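Lab notebook: predicted structure, single chain.

Context: the supervisor wants predicted structures on file for every construct in the current expression panel, including those that have not yet been purified. This is the next one on the list. No modifications to the sequence; it matches the entry in the shared construct table.
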Amino acid sequence: MVIQSISTGHYYIKTRHTRRTYMPSGEKVHSKLYWGRMLKDLHKTGWLGGSLGTLLADLLSVALVLFGVSGTMMWIVPRVYRSAPVSERP
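Prediction complete. Output recorded below exactly as produced.
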């Protein structure tokens, strides 16, 4: 889809995943990638028509949950250890 701004003369070429902005002379000024839509399509349809994208998205989500849990434990354990009386520490 091509959209033109009448006041400035700039035109935009918008696709499903990108938007590119051009000056009236044809010089490219700006480019934007819609990551959310790209990742959503990758998760929904897979990579190259297969289930690889869905599998990668699921593995990434499990890894992020594990990183979150381990980070929380790394933050909590030292505080619990410091709050314990010296006689009860290992």
